[in-house]
Amino acid sequence: MSIAERGTEALREHVATQLRRARERSVVLTDAVDDDDLVRQHSKLMSPLVWDLAHIGNQEELWLVRDVGGREPVREDIDNLYDAFQHPRADRPALPLLDPAQARGYVREVRDKVFDVLEGSRLEGRRLETDGFAFGMIVQHEQQHDETMLATHQLRRGAPVLHAPAPPAGRPLPVAEVLVPEGPFAMGTSIEAWALDNERPAHDVHVDAFFIDTAPVTNAAYEAFIAAGGYDDPRWWSEVGWAYRVKADLTAPRFWVRDGAGWLRDRFGHVEPIPPDEPVVHVCFHEALAYATWAGRRLPTEAEWEKAARFDPATGRSRRFPWGDEDPGPEHANLGQRHLSPAPVGAYPAGASPLGVHQLVGDVWEWLDSDFHGYPGFEAFPYREYSEVFFGGDYKMLRGGSFGTDPAAVRATFRNWDHPIRRQIFAGFRCARDARAEELA
Ligand SMILES: [Fe+2]
């Protein structure tokens, strides 16, 4: 059910449930390690976990306690410390941050006030409060930081501290690629209540006919690229990609470790054989593009990905998710840190799109050959720093969410972006190709 279709009391309950779920996850991620580990910087790319925790509370205080609630500040004195624009991640450990006990007390105090604010909010009127938007934004913000904290856990050295059951088994897919027909489709949304500014508004986009893979590229396929000397041949790489390949001495996905003639991987502290039929993860955009070029294919554009994920040829309309309009369930997609790895190809037949494309949502974020820009009619909301300041920067788009993305923080319209060299995120890719004239006859 979409948020706008709920009654006010049902919406209030939904908001409360989503806030609780996000907090339970933050607690799992921060209680899993000791105080030493919480304040340590596990990688220059990441904040100490204790920064993420207090930052989650600070954003919640700014938007829900002060703005929506109109209440007195809880800790105005720490706003600057937890402003992501003021302090790059590498500098954060040197700041006079709240210690773990203070951070836990702070987020608890803020949350108590927020439940009080939620009781009193009409969840309509001001745009910020309509359909609980500000609450939804804060839920998504916490879940996004939880995924970031999960990536910090992957970078952390030491014995495993996170545990989850293995994902469901895979099964072979009937075809390797499908044709997405030529024509317009509705991209983005104007009706999804908690969609962020960069997903809006809905607008028609024409897409030429193209073929897209029914599954993300697997570890086995990627290993064949490595074995064929893909990392040693500049022909497959863009100029900037090759320069980075050389400078960073890339030889395999991040967290792969040589084991004689083969490879193992380090996954949250477990060193294990690489499952051949699982989507490859921890590759940067440049690696994804090099693989696609080597394979005689290309990466999809953002519009192509979204059309493959949402377009229903039977009705001509765009769905909320590949499987339909229902919120993601465990049968649809590998989301929400239920498992600590991508699932093998074919593990979610109930999550396929009408055109038969699998695992578009969940498992791995998918790198796309598109830059970040606003849609026609874009309007910054509720603040320019959410999206607009990143338009036109050195970013490539990512879609679909990963096993570490919560269902509350992803939709088929949801847009993510990152630098094309990033490998610590849970990103993989799938390939596409142009349709040839004889294939359309
Ligand atoms: Fe943030």
UniProtKB/TrEMBL annotation:
It catalyses: gamma-L-glutamyl-L-cysteine + hercynine + O2 = gamma-L-glutamyl-hercynylcysteine S-oxide + H2O. Its cofactor is Fe(2+). One of its GO terms (molecular function) is iron ion binding. Its EC number is 1.14.99.50. Residues 176-433 form the Sulfatase-modifying factor enzyme-like domain. Gamma-L-glutamyl-L-cysteine binds at R89, A90, D91, R92, D418, R422. It is an enzyme of class 1 (oxidoreductase). InterPro entries: CTDL_fold, DinB-like, DinB/YfiT-like, EgtB, EgtB_Actinobacteria, Sulfatase_Mod_Factor_Kinase, SUMF_dom, SUMF_sf. Keywords: Iron, Metal-binding, Monooxygenase, Oxidoreductase. The keyword Acetylation does not apply. HAMAP family: EgtB (MF_02035). Catalyzes the oxidative sulfurization of hercynine (N-alpha,N-alpha,N-alpha-trimethyl-L-histidine) into hercynyl-gamma-L-glutamyl-L-cysteine sulfoxide, a step in the biosynthesis pathway of ergothioneine. PANTHER family: HERCYNINE OXYGENASE, SULFATASE MODIFYING FACTOR 1, 2. This is Hercynine oxygenase. The gene is egtB.
